[in-house]
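Q: My collaborator sent me two sequences in one message, no labels, and asked for predicted structures for both. Can we handle them in order? The first one she listed is below.
A: Yes, handling them in the order given. First sequence, followed by its C-alpha cells:
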Amino acid sequence: MKKMLSGLIVCLLAISAFAAGNKESSTTQYKFAADCTWPPLEYVEDGKIVGYEIDLINEFSALTGIKMEILNTGWDGIFAGLKNGAYDAVASGVTVTEERKNTMEFTKPILTVNQSILVKVGTEGLTDINSLNGKKVGIQVGTTGDFCLDGKTQIIKMGYDEIPLAVEDLINGNLDAVVCDSLIASDFVLANKKYQNLLVVTGTASEEIEEIAMAVTKGNRELVTLINDCLDKLEKNGKIAELKQKYNIL
C-alpha cells in the first residue's frame, strides 16, 4: 500500500509538473517595438499596424505558436526601452552597426539598404553627398541617415522625429532634400499615392551598403535563435519572397 501510495504521489507530481510546463509555454510571449512611420517596413494603415517586418513577426508566431505583440514606439527612445526590458526586440528597420552590437543582439540580416537622396521632381544636381553642400537636408534624428551626414559641416542638417515630417517640409519647399534608407525613399516615390509624381530619388548619400536586422535584448540568444530559425524556414518555403513582392521590396 505504501509503495502504491508513493507511486501515486510520484505520478501526481509528474502530472503537476507537466501541467505547469504546459501553462508556462502557453503564456510565453514576446513583445516587439516598432516605430510605425517607416513604410513599407512598419506603418499604420486604417488604424492597423502593417508592413513587411510586421508580417514577418506574424509568420514567426504562426510557426512557433508563441504570441508576439507589436508596440508602436517612437524612435527617439526605442533602444532605451529595449535595454530597460520594456520589450524583447525592436523590428524597425534597424541598421546593424558595431556600436549597437555593444548594447544589443542582432538577428541575421533581413534586408540590405543604402542612404538615398530624395528630392522634389524637377530638382537637379543633387546626386551625391558633396552636391548637398550648402543645402537644407532633412533626416530622422538617431538614424543612419543622420549619422552619414555627421562631420559634413557644409550641409545644413535639419532633424526630425519622423521621416514623413521631413518629406512634408520637402514638399512645402522648406528643405532641398531628405536623406533616408533606400527602402523608405522608394516607398514614398513608388507606393505612396499622396506623393505620386512629386518625388524622385536622385542618388545616394553614402556608398556603404547597410544590413537591416531585428535587434534583441542583450544576452537573449534564445530569441535570436528562434527568429533566425524562423527566417530560414520562411526563406525555404518562399514566404519571404512573397512578402517582398507584396511590399515592392526589390
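Q: And the one she listed second?
A: Here it is, processed independently of the first:
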Amino acid sequence: MYFRHLYVGVAVSLSLSYQAAVLLAKPFEDPPIILRQQTQSGASPAPAADKTSKEKEQKLPTDKITKPESLPQSALTPEQRLTYIIGVEDELQISVWREPELSTAVVVRPDGMITLPLINDVKAVGLRTEELQNILIDKLKNFVNEPQVTVIVRAIRSRKVYLMGEVGHQGTFPLNGDMTVLELLAAAGGIGPFAKADSIYILREQNGKKVRIPFHYKKAVAGKSENVTLQPGDLIVVP
C-alpha cells in the first residue's frame, strides 16, 4: 500500500513538472496593439457642416413678363381694309388696349347695329373699319382715359352671291374679295352636261333696278370674252 501511494505521488509530480517546463519553453506573445486614429500635429478635424443651420435660399419672385396679345387675323387684305364697307352679318373684333372687359367679338345685326359694353348700340353698317374705330374712341372717352381701339373684320358674311340652274351645287356663296363668274362656277362644281353655256346671265341691281348682264361662257373660257367680276348681291343663272 505504501509503495502504491508513493508511485501515484511521483507520477503527479512528474506531470506537473512537465507542464511547467512546457509553459516556460513557450515564448510570450505580444499583446495586441490598438491603433488609435491620430490627427496631424496642430490640426483638428473640421466639424461636419450643419445643413439645418443654414438658411434656405428663397427665390425672389420675378416679374411676370406678359407678351402683348396678338390680334385676331383679319379676313381682309391690307388693301381691302382701306375701302371695305361693313355689312350685315359681318363678324367684327373690337379690341380696346388694356381694357379686356371692353374688348369683344360682335356680329352686325340685321338693323346694322352692334352692341358694346358701356356705350351700348352703335351703327356699323355702311362704315369703313377706320371710321368705326374713330366713333368708338369718341364714345369711350367718357369712360376710358385716352382709349385706343382697333376694329378688325374677322369674317365677311355680308357679301354674298347667288347661283342657280344647271350647276354642281346651287346656293349662296360668300364673296370674299374679288371673284369672277368662272371662279364661282368652278367653286360650285362646274356647269352640268345639259347646261346652255351660251345663255348664262347675271342679274345685278343697279340704281334700284335689276339689270340682266349676259355671260358668254365658252368665249370667257377661251379668253375671248370678259370674265365678269361679281358684286355683292349678284344672281348668276345657268339655264
